[in-house]
């Protein structure tokens, strides 16, 4: 477990890690060139940090802190209501301070380079083929990330039009002054001068300092990205994206220092815990792998990859949850395998390690296969990894969660496609057939199902916990195989219409759209409650109706009509309701569950979606106006760092192009940083009560904080062609898989639905045959 740690923490900096070691097969000139390029990248990063922090530095000089507290989280005053900007700005300053020595070395190297300025730049002999399809895709991804030059693989600086200091097109574009060796020297000297002027080179004081509550209340918006309302410039979103990256690094570094290798991390006590002895399951490391890749954190990625290669072992006498292990571990490994081949500069230096993620995924999947060995084909809730033996749930009368049993298909189908092994496809597909053959009314499934009998337990209907991701995976299965399996689109349409008919209602005062529950079945009373988990739905609706394409393009399709337009309106209104769960609280963080005040009898959906009457003005007094429609009970007031709302914000922004979704995401990020950051650089924690300031901590950092919440925020503030929604699907843990042509591997849907009559009832096969012959 500690073998890879030394290399990851003590090796070269991020830029050096990012540079492929072309010089390994080149002569000494090639090695010198690579060294100069690395120094150039370091100075470029310092230059960017100066531009980020210079306008924010006090005019007065500050004395140096005697206590090392780079994130300014130790003092009670700071921890009470920590400034989001103070935390993240100090993170940037720490990076700058640590890089000063590297920049000094860069100056010395540059002086020598200027003296030898007549020496032409030598391209390494094994430079990649820039005309390949892979390179073109990488160019499209990375060249559109404004201000991200410092984090790119150095070979991306090959001239390609007017990019990164190169003038003109053509193969012989000239390097601009900032990229020349003489320019490099001047930039480095200027940067060092600025560091000296502000005292950063000697470890100047943190910007957060001893701020009062008013100062700490100043938002990140005014410091990094402009106002939290209205339009902002492109550069502002790049700064906001960097702030999310800094928050991720704060979380990751805390885990790396205090909990490395553990499956759970407790940021307040700074301890970890294994879910399976002796060395754990890699729960946090594997779940965060593709976030590291998307953020281009190559040093941290190399550390994680080495741990997975040398320490991750699934041969454990331990029962694990089939669903959670599939979506987090199997999904994380498969996504990492995909992205290391898709995004530039992420392949391991050792070619023998290129398949380590796929190998680990296949080993894990083979162990999970035991869960599908039930009499009905519905997977057991748990599986013992060492024996590949499934076990019934230890609660709920032995029944499996319906959502958990039907949220395994994206992962298993993608693995089948990669390996050509049909058994992964067959067992996961069989589950969908068994569930659909039960003929749930209007596509609304009870939330429990027996694995041994293949029948539902009870009749409780909800799209929150235990029901949610069944519905999420219907359109995603359709899109994953490039729309070659229309049965899943048909099932989705049926379920969404059923939800409108039986669950969709509106609040009493402001007409917020609510997707309520039916604890006693479709004919039972409506329960005005929404889990935060339901907030996946607006984004999924938008994805399903457009296929991930921009709304302006989707509306031009011949399949677009009144129902599709209504679905987009429904997605907008549900997103507003979900955002209201954040804005209604004192912390700006959503509770785990919200209840709503309805008319008596409830106002239900009839023929169109009603527009809400509120714009979520936070200045409205508590319990008045639109806030009177929300009821947060003490038992439901905790926040687990969940991603569902920001997930929908990403989809809604990418598909509609409406700036409000980005702005809401930024407000959400500010609240997380302000109220969940842990003193002493512990990272971020879930909290116990979002209605109180400061909220009590729960001393736990969920793995999906790294895998989902911060990933979706980062993508929300990124250019749209970083993981385009019309080319990939995210699993329910935000792990990205490509859309693929299943027919190339001879995979197809191996079952057909039992026909339904006009009332949605199953039509027996005999009746269908008689109708055909009559």
Automatic annotation (TrEMBL):
It is an enzyme of class 3 (hydrolase). One of its GO terms (molecular function) is calcium ion binding. The active site is at residues 324, 468, 592, 644. Keywords: Calcium, Disulfide bond, Glycosidase, Hydrolase, Membrane, Metal-binding, Transmembrane, Transmembrane helix. Ca(2+) binds at residue 732. It catalyses: N(4)-(alpha-D-Man-(1->2)-alpha-D-Man-(1->2)-alpha-D-Man-(1->3)-[alpha-D-Man-(1->3)-[alpha-D-Man-(1->2)-alpha-D-Man-(1->6)]-alpha-D-Man-(1->6)]-beta-D-Man-(1->4)-beta-D-GlcNAc-(1->4)-beta-D-GlcNAc)-L-asparaginyl-[protein] (N-glucan mannose isomer 8A1,2,3B1,3) + 3 H2O = N(4)-(alpha-D-Man-(1->3)-[alpha-D-Man-(1->3)-[alpha-D-Man-(1->6)]-alpha-D-Man-(1->6)]-beta-D-Man-(1->4)-beta-D-GlcNAc-(1->4)-beta-D-GlcNAc)-L-asparaginyl-[protein] (N-glucan mannose isomer 5A1,2) + 3 beta-D-mannose; N(4)-(alpha-D-Man-(1->2)-alpha-D-Man-(1->2)-alpha-D-Man-(1->3)-[alpha-D-Man-(1->2)-alpha-D-Man-(1->3)-[alpha-D-Man-(1->2)-alpha-D-Man-(1->6)]-alpha-D-Man-(1->6)]-beta-D-Man-(1->4)-beta-D-GlcNAc-(1->4)-beta-D-GlcNAc)-L-asparaginyl-[protein] (N-glucan mannose isomer 9A1,2,3B1,2,3) + 4 H2O = N(4)-(alpha-D-Man-(1->3)-[alpha-D-Man-(1->3)-[alpha-D-Man-(1->6)]-alpha-D-Man-(1->6)]-beta-D-Man-(1->4)-beta-D-GlcNAc-(1->4)-beta-D-GlcNAc)-L-asparaginyl-[protein] (N-glucan mannose isomer 5A1,2) + 4 beta-D-mannose. Its cofactor is Ca(2+). Disulfide bonds join 535-578. Pathway: Protein modification; protein glycosylation. GO terms for biological process: carbohydrate metabolic process; ERAD pathway. Belongs to the glycosyl hydrolase 47 family. This is alpha-1,2-Mannosidase. It comes from Stemphylium lycopersici.
């Amino acid at each position: 477990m500690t073998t890879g740690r030394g290399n990851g923490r003590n090796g070269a900096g991020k830029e050096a890690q990012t540079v492929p070691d072309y010089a390994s097969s080149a002569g000494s000139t090639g090695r010198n060139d690579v060294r100069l390029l690395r120094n150039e990248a370091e100075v470029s990063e310092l230059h960017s940090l100066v531009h980020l922090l210079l306008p924010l530095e006090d005019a007065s000089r500050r004395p140096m802190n005697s206590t090392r507290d780079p994130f300014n989280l130790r003092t009670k005053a700071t921890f009470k209501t920590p400034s989001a900007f103070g935390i993240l700005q100090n993170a940037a300053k720490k990076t700058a301070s640590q890089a000063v020595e590297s920049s000094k070395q860069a100056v010395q190297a540059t002086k020598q380079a200027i003296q030898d300025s007549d020496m032409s730049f030598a391209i390494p002999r094994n430079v990649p083929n820039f005309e390949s399809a892979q390179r073109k895709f990488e160019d499209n991804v990375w060249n559109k990330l404004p201000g991200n030059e410092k984090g790119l693989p150095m070979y991306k600086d090959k001239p390609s039009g007017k990019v990164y200091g190169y003038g003109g097109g053509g193969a012989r574009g000239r390097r601009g002054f900032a990229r020349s060796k003489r320019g490099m020297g001047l930039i480095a000297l200027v940067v060092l001068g600025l560091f000296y002027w502000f005292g950063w080179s000697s470890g100047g004081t943190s910007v957060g300092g001893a701020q009062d509550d008013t100062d700490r209340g100043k938002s990140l918006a005014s410091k990094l990205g402009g106002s939290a309302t209205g339009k902002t410039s492109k550069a502002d979103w790049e700064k906001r994206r960097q702030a999310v990256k800094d928050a991720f690094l704060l979380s990751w570094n805390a885990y790396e220092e205090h909990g490395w290798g553990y499956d759970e991390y407790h940021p307040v006590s700074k301890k970890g815990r294994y879910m399976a002895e002796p060395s754990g399951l890699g729960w946090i490391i594997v779940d965060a792998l593709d976030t590291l890749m998307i953020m281009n954190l190559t040093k941290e990625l190399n550390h994680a990859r080495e741990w997975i290669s040398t320490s991750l072992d699934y041969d454990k006498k331990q029962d694990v949850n089939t669903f959670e292990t599939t979506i987090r571990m199997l999904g994380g490994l498969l996504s990492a395998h995909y992205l290391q081949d898709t995004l530039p500069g992420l392949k391991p230096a050792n070619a023998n390690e290129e398949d380590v993620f796929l190998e680990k995924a296949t080993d894990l999947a083979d162990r999970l296969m035991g869960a599908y060995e039930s009499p009905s084909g519905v997977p057991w809730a748990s599986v013992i990894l060492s024996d590949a033996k499934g076990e019934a749930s230890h609660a709920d009368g032995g029944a499996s969660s319906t959502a958990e049993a039907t949220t395994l298909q994206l992962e298993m189908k993608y693995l089948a496609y990669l390996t050509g092994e049909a058994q992964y496809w067959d067992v996961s597909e069989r589950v969908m057939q068994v569930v659909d053959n039960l003929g749930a009314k209007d596509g609304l499934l009870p939330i429990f199902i027996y694995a041994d009998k293949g029948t539902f337990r009870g009749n409780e209907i909800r799209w929150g916990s235990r029901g949610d991701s069944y519905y999420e995976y219907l359109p995603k299965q359709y899109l994953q195989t490039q729309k070659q399996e229309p049965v899943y689109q048909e099932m989705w349409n049926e379920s969404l219409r059923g939800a409108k008919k039986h669950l969709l209602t509106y609040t009493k005062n402001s007409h917020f759209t609510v997707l309520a529950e039916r604890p006693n079945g479709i004919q039972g009373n409506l329960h005005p409650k929404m889990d935060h988990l339901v907030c996946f739905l607006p984004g999924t609706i938008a994805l399903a109706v457009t296929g991930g394409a921009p709304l302006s393009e989707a509306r031009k399709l011949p399949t677009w009509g009144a129902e599709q337009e209504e679905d987009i309106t429904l997605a907008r209104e549900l997103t507003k309701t979900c955002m209201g769960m954040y804005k209604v609280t004192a912390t700006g963080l959503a509770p785990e569950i919200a209840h709503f005040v309805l008319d008596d009898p409830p106002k239900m959906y009839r023929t169109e979606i009603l527009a809400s009457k509120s714009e979520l003005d936070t200045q409205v007094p508590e319990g008045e106006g639109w806030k009177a429609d929300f009821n947060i009970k003490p038992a439901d007031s905790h926040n687990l760092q969940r991603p569902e709302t920001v997930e929908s914000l990403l989809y809604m922004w990418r598909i509609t192009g409406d700036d409000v979704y980005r702005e809401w995401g930024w407000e959400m990020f500010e609240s997380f940083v302000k109220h969940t950051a842990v003193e002493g650089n512990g990272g971020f924690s879930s909290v116990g009560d979002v209605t109180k300031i400061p909220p009590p901590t729960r001393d736990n950092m969920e793995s999906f904080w790294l895998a989902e919440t911060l990933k979706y925020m980062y993508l929300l503030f990124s250019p749209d062609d970083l993981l385009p929604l019309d080319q990939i699907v995210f699993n329910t843990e935000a792990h990205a898989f490509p859309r693929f042509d299943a027919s190339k591997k001879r995979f197809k849907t191996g079952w057909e639905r039992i026909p339904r009559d006009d009332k949605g009832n199953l039509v027996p096969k005999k009746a269908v045959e008689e109708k055909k012959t009559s």
